[in-house]
Amino acid sequence: MRIIDLHCYPGTQTWIDCQGPYVDALAKYWKRDWVAKEEDAVVADFEGAGVEACLVALDLETTIGTPPCSNDYVHAMWQRHPERIIQCWGTLDPFKTETVMEEARHAVEDLGFIGFHFHPIMQHFAVNDRRFFPLFGLIDGLGATVMIDVGTTGMGAGMPGGMGAQIRHAHPASIDELAANFPNLKIIMAHPGWPWGDETTAVALHKGNVYWEMSGWAPKYLPELLKKDIRGRLQDKVMFGSDYPSMPYERIMREWDELGYSDEVRAKLFHGNAERVLGL
């Protein structure tokens, strides 16, 4: 079966460096060393798991002062490995007001990206902040999609004050308001949305332009109601993501298998919905 992985980070030193002070906290959160791999080793991981990867760029320069893992960086990696990397999610820092609009156009028109990923907790903003509606209006006009984290994050977890980040910025209510104001904008919620799982489900069901990918969470630990909804009322909404390199592919795939979904549901989850909604 085809497996489209919507949420993969580059895993290289450039990506590690852009996380700055969060590296040690992430190692504790995931209970393993948080270290870089060579690019060829990252691609070998994708090949070994049989996934077609969508890379995610990351820009935390405004909040922690590190150089971004930039749009041009992930694009170059895509171009070197088109057999395993099939698309990219660009990164935009909404606080870079002098350059963000130009960067959005560059990522879509020049680099051919499918859309943009936002990390509201670590980027210190909520997507329903109307100061940034012109940016989302531009993205909508470009025909691009947005992927937005919902729920808590391992970045800053356990650190004093969470390094100034607020998990409330990733509440699904922000997605609800954004979707209502931009009904033609396709929105992918990233991660299971803990601790607001029921509210995240409600947004996915209520807003026709909102979908949901299940990265960054061991499948066996998904809430029981969510496991049930994936085989039922959410089966046309959910998509697969790994949050690579957060967890080994072997574990992720084994635990999805153990949930016992039908071939029809698995096909929608692993590739069908992404093909239909995103044209992959």
* CATH fold category name: TIM Barrel
Instruction: State the end-to-end CA separation.
Output: 15 Å
Strand content: 5-15%
Query: How would a crystallographer describe the biggest sheet?
Result: 8 strands, parallel
Average of per-residue pLDDT values = 95
In terms of quaternary structure, the protein is single chain
CATH class equals: Alpha Beta
Q: How helix-rich are the residues, as a percent range?
A: 40-55%
Instruction: Just name the CATH architecture.
Output: Alpha-Beta Barrel
Radius of gyration: 17 Å
Structural class: alpha/beta
Poorly predicted runs are none
Helix tally equals 13
Indicate the overall shape.
Answer: globular
Q: Please tell me the total number of domains.
A: 1
Structure notes:
- This protein is an alpha/beta fold.
- The protein has one domain (3-278): Metal-dependent hydrolases (TIM Barrel), CATH 3.20.20.
- The chain has helices at residues 13-17, 22-30, 39-49, 61-64, 71-80, 100-110, 120-123, 133-141, 172-181, 197-206, 224-231, 249-258, 263-278, and strands at 3-8, 51-56, 85-91, 115-118, 145-149, 187-190, 210-213, 238-239.
- Strands 1-2-3-4-5-6-7-8 form an eight-stranded parallel sheet.
- The longest helix has 16 residues, at 263-278.
- It is globular and about 50 Å long.
- The two termini are 15 Å apart.
